[in-house]
Fold:
Amino acid sequence: MTAPQLHAKTRALGARNTLVAVAIPSFDATSTWLEPASLRAAAEIGCAVLAIVVALTILRVRRAIERRNADTAFASGLLAMAILDGAHGLTNVREACGWSHALAILVGGTFFASVWIPSGRILALRARLPAVAAFVATALGIVIVAEHDALPEMSGLGALHPLAAGLGLGGGALLVLAAIGMRRDLADRSGARAVYALYCALVAVAAVAFLASSARDAGPWIWHAVRCAAVVGAFLALHFGLADETVRTGAPVREARVEASAIEATAGNGAMDERRALVAERARAEADASHWQAASQRSAAMLARVVEATPVGMLRVEASGRIAFANACAHRMFGYGPTELVGRQVEDLVPEASRNLHVMMRERFQAAPTSRAMGMGRALSGLRKDGTRFRLEIGLDAMETDEGPQVLACVIDVSEVVQQTRKLEHAVMELARSNADLDDFAYVASHDLRAPLRAISNLAQWIVEDARPVLPQTSKDHLDTLSGRIRRMESLLEDLLTYSRADRDDAAATLVDVGEILHEVVDLLGPPEGFEIEVRHPLPNAWASRAPLEQVFRNLIGNAIKHHDRPNGRIVVSGRDLGDCVEYTVADDGPGIPREFHERAFRMFQTLKPRDEVEGSGMGLAFVKRVVGRNGGQVRIASGDERGTSVIFTWRKSEEAVGVA
Amino acid sequence: MNANDVQIVLIDDDTVDVEGIGRALKKRRISNPITVFRDGIEALEGLRRTGPGALVRKPFMILLDLNMPRMGGLEFLAELRRDERLRDTVVFVLTTSSSDRDKLGSYALNIAGYMVKSRVGDDFMDMLQLLGWYWRIVELPQEAS
Structure:
């Protein structure tokens, strides 16, 4: 039912009938100017029925908008009073009249006062309050009509039974309370607030007048008049628009929305009536059609901006292959002007060689559309307007549109990525080639350089063999020196080869027993008389392929012996677990390495003493550094203050701990 | 078979090595005839020559260098093992290369031993000592005729 219809109906039924419904039952049954009794009874009952209609109308109008506590309470009270007043029209017994009036005031007052029951607290009761009121009033009415003989006797006008007087007094108090509650509950709706509150207040006054008139035997006219005034006032207010528009017409859209917002804002308190929120939501849904339309327009505009701004090319293609839409990026990517793409065949963007395939695949996709990447792993190319091609990747999705089924294609230009990947692949190949070159170099160094060296060596030896008797002593010495240098060069070449191979040890790494390795190394080195090599247990195990680690220890212990300056020496090998790696130390009591040479000692071909004094290639520590670094460790030298050198290196302890050299 | 009948075929392009082996043989008083080829191609030609102009007659054994011009030792070996008449030849590799590639490749072609001319000096002497004993004790294949 629309608001204008409600307006009309409310005016026709509600307002006019309110006058009749509430005014007529106010006339006392004992009045003498409405005779006979049957006419009076008919008037009373008819009016009661009309009052009920008014109450129901209020409820119905309010359901479409927002029903406040006051609306429910007012309608419930109206119902209860109407039913009890109607009941008293069914009997002409004095007792029944008195009791029914007193009870009507009490019950009506109670329901009017229910405006005070907080929202949400008694939710179920609130929704059913009018029904409860009707039930209670009907039950009481039946008792009064059927069992009026059993009711305590009234002694007539001016002599109310004390209980009935108490009921009336209590009802009056409740009505006053209700009047305040109505005002409070409808604080922001001046019209309904005035009508409801005024009505309650006047009925309260009527109740007092009823008691007073009974006590003083003043006749029923005063309180009938007051009630009548109340109803007439209410009717006039409703009828002539002094009351709240919302009662009369259903709320104007704007006001309802404001109220709904207010309810939502306070809903967080949990004290709000859920039903009210629901009703408010419905009101808003009706009212906000234009608002939603505007919002949807806004979000459509926002989406359009996103689509235009995104660095992904987007195309919508119709079933025929016609491009229905292309965003700015797609135009740029394919080298077209800002609007040139729309209307073209999508195959214009496909290199000629693939066009037939594309048509076929497009039709297949339309037959069984799935959201997927186009090309199924094939390298896809796009064709620009100027005829150049570029590599791209495409994601496809099917969509239903107003213009029929379309395919959404999201396109990314990957030519740069492809180019970078190619560069990278090329670099990797270069690296592999240069490693192979290095391998070759090591081979050349080991073979081609060594062969002539051997020849020189042999020739020198043969000269000595053949001509020793005739050679002067200096020549013999020179030939000896020559042999020595040849040996040195040979060992240099040998060490260089070992060094270059250090990177290419592909033997599988395992957890090796370092104690066992050391045992073998010491055995192999055969330390000279006077040297003591102590291996301090326990030694942690290392994750290594055996050969390189063995070589490291051999070099370090060998160095310690070779560079020792005394006939007696002591070398201590120890190790410890550092948690994420293991650390080994080879310490000697030799002359030590001055701090400033520590770094230099790790360079290739570096020796601290002339090779004539200590034979060595200068490759030992360089090799150690390289092998240790390759296994994720670090190596350093620690010198004692006066004597002694400690070489300390770390090594990985498990497979996971692969370091980067 | 007289041990002195065993002919030594030396395939090496390095004159110093050739002279070294000659000197060592002389020193050991080994008087077996030596035939020298400079590379694999020359050696194959010489070895395949039969009849009156033959340079080499069984029993003989080969001392082979690997690194040579034109045809290296490994290629020569492969060719040798494909030759119906020469495939049973006993070959010792005598080289400066200690690389695993060469070593494994040589043994794959059924050599009798791989010797590295690693140290300068008297190594030829030890080597020839071994070879001298070898052909005195080991029976070498004879010419089929």
